[in-house]
């Protein structure tokens, strides 16, 4: 149960960073960098199930080297 709350919190934080007007890059990378590789995989799956394809969200909000970095940091 606790892990589900952590997944939800991390995925929600990524959604908030990517959603709305403008991208909160600091929030995105702070959230991502607080997860280990296994946690990132689980958060990606949780995000994809609940909010849509995280890769698409990243590609829509970031560009250039920031996009590559965001995809890489999330293992996409």
Give start-end ranges of low-pLDDT stretches: none
Report the count of strand segments: 0
Helix and strand pattern: HHHHH
Approximate helicity band: over 70%
Sum up the overall morphology in one term. globular
**C-alpha end-to-end distance:** 26 Å
Structural class label: mainly alpha
Average pLDDT figure: 93
- What share of residues are in beta strands? under 5%
Oligomer: single chain
Topology of this structure?
Elements: H1 2-18, H2 25-33, H3 37-51, H4 54-61, H5 64-73
Helix pairs in contact: 1-2, 1-3
Question: Your description of this structure?
Answer:
This protein has 76 residues and is mainly alpha-helical. The protein contains five helices and no strands. The protein has helices at 2-18, 25-33, 37-51, 54-61, 64-73. The chain is globular, with a radius of gyration of 11 Å.
Features:
76 residues, globular
Briefly summarize what is shown.
This protein has 76 residues and is mostly helical.
């Amino acid at each position: 149960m606790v892990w589900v709350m952590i997944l939800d919190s991390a995925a929600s934080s990524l959604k908030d960073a990517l959603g709305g007007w403008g991208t909160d890059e600091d929030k995105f990378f702070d959230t991502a960098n607080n997860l280990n590789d296994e946690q990132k995989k689980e958060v990606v799956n949780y995000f994809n199930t609940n909010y849509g394809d995280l890769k698409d969200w990243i590609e829509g909000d970031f560009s250039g080297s920031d996009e590559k970095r965001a995809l890489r940091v999330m293992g996409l």
